[in-house]
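Notes continue from the previous slide.

Worked example: a multi-chain complex. Inputs as given:
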Amino acid sequence: MHKTQYSLRTDLNNGIIEIPAPAELNVQVRNLVMKTSKGKTLAAGEMIAEHPSKLGGAYHTPLSGKVVKVNYHNLTIKCDGGEEAVAPVDIASMGPGKELLRSLQDLGIGVAPLSGAEILVINGLNPEPGVSVAEQLLKGERELLEDGLKLVKKFIVPVKTVLAVAEGAPYKLAGSETQTVKPKYPNSLDALVVKAVTGKEFPSNTKVISVMDLYHIGRIARTGLPMTHTVMTIIGNNYRVPLGTPIRHIIDHLGMSVEPHDKVVLGGPFRGEAVYSLDEGVKKGDYGLFVVPAGSFPPVEDAACINCGECVLFCPGRIQANLIARYVEFERFEMAEKHGLNSCFECGLCAFNCVARKPLLQYIRFAKAQLKARGEKA
Ligand code: SF4
Ligand code: SF4
């Protein structure tokens, strides 16, 4: 049995620190439905795109400015430092119906979890080792989280609400009972948190929501203004970052060192993805940023699998990531599906521990995206 354990415990020394407004925003708009165009002047909070899915949340500019570039991937806004901002939406006066659900979507919230269920699980564990956003929000934003919970409950109407937190953590939320979970990665992933609380895998009577989502919903409930920032752990502190802020702006502001061939990663050490350019903008849901110095790890590459089996042993679901990767290499996505692709909850442990440094998680994500695209076309 493997003894390696990845702790989710963190030390919180400060509150959330603001990243100052950048001069330019780069918003990723690939696959979104555009609601603005080049040359348009935007007020802070104005909608720039809608999500193509029925339940996805819209995207807004956090700062006022002019749209100076639009292509398939990105939209660039030159910020003007202006005060012009959108008017708040009167969320408080709305009952739990279609109007409120639509307003939440228009203000940036994905509403897929907002339908009836017996059990509501609030995932209050830090998502990955070295990332402390969940604890930071539970510690410093309790009232906003409780406002968010009240609003969420209007739709879910749960019989039982459970806040899952790390063993030894002192956090509580009004309107929920607390259950502790061993703070070892990947226990923080939704599927495992739900299993720890209910004892079942993927129970149909249960909804799960993260404290980050509750925080955004709570903020909207209180202000009526759209979601325009994310909270990220960067070199041990947590920062409030306007969406679309270029990575370069954060790195310069915090005086971080990035040398040629270093990798800059958005997310955490297991599930994060290296950015292709420092001009890339921060996205919804990004919760971490860190630099992997060149030479500190062997590079991830398409090396041959040596059939050591480590990926299977590290996988909490004993999925054969090696076999799935082989099918994906030959574009046999339906065979990858037959071998447990959809049971994978993308913890990244297989890839992290692959001795050949194969990009197993990327293969898995690629296969899921290909199958989804085929399904949408069919
Ligand atoms: S990412 Fe890898 S280790 Fe994690 S569940 Fe999927 S196959 Fe298993
Ligand atoms: S850990 Fe890597 S090299 Fe070993 S079996 Fe899995 S894919 Fe192959």
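Summary box: The chain is about 30% helix and 20% strand. The longest strand covers residues 160-166.
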